[in-house]
Amino acid sequence: MSVDISEMAQYYAKVNISIIDVVRVTVPPGRKCFGVYTPPFSGFVFPLRGRARMFFDGVPYEMEYGKIFHAGPNMSLDKEVLGDSEWDFMVLHYQADDQIIDKVSYGQAHFELETGSNTRINDLLHRLHKHCATSEPFLALRVKVLFLEMMSEILLSANNQSRESGREMVEKAVTYMNMYYMEPLTISQIAAQYGLNNKQFTYLFQRHTGIGPTEYLIQQRIGRARELLCTTRCSVAEIAACVGYADPYYFSKLFKKRTGVSPSSFNRRKGQ
């Protein structure tokens, strides 16, 4: 399931949560378990050591420290420990009364959040684990407060990780566009290289560069066309092809719109 961090923050701020338990589990290497189901309530899985692969309703998740996973109630579950180390993790089970929430029900879904190494999340999780192990009734409120604190920290970390990941992806996309602007590129093709649709890619590109990818590509092409008009004797059609436009008429219209003069007029002016 795709995750909207802002939407998820609103969901957990509004939904009525009851914490069931927080348990720690250690599984020996090589252990596998197929054909079971998640409990009749929701849960977050917090990897601590080792690696595992879990399938929630047939969707695989590679589990390791720095990532947090969620599964809804009564989902089909297959799991196996990877590598030669023990698989050590905590799982927080909770009940979500979200019938009044007029949004996607994250409590009923499976998804992954990448948080990176965050000691505050670990501290809050271990405090929850300690408090849930006691039966003192006055701690129930403290448990709920700790849960909300932890969710806030998780979502802030996930948002920061997403920003960093998005920046790195955009930097790679900019490098690619600089290298291959002369090819018949489309934004959809570039976005697909990074597993994104057009809208997602455009949003990230604009957030990190200040302009949309289509505008950036046009700027690169027109800038290179100006250089070629000034330094070569190529025809307008040849220059159009050199900067990624198969139709010289379209190129000429675009060039004039961006520079105020046609390519042929620009070409004549360079000799003045």
Automatic annotation (TrEMBL):
InterPro entries: Homeodomain-like_sf, HTH-like, HTH_AraC, HTH_AraC-typ_CS, Tscrpt_reg_AraC-type_HTH. It comes from Propionispora vibrioides. Coiled coil: none annotated. Keywords: DNA-binding, Transcription, Transcription regulation. The keyword Transcription applies. This is AraC-type DNA-binding protein. The keyword Manganese does not apply. Signal peptide: none annotated. PANTHER family: ARAC-FAMILY TRANSCRIPTIONAL REGULATOR. Residues 171-269 form the HTH araC/xylS-type domain. It comes from the Bacteria. GO terms for molecular function: DNA-binding transcription factor activity; sequence-specific DNA binding.
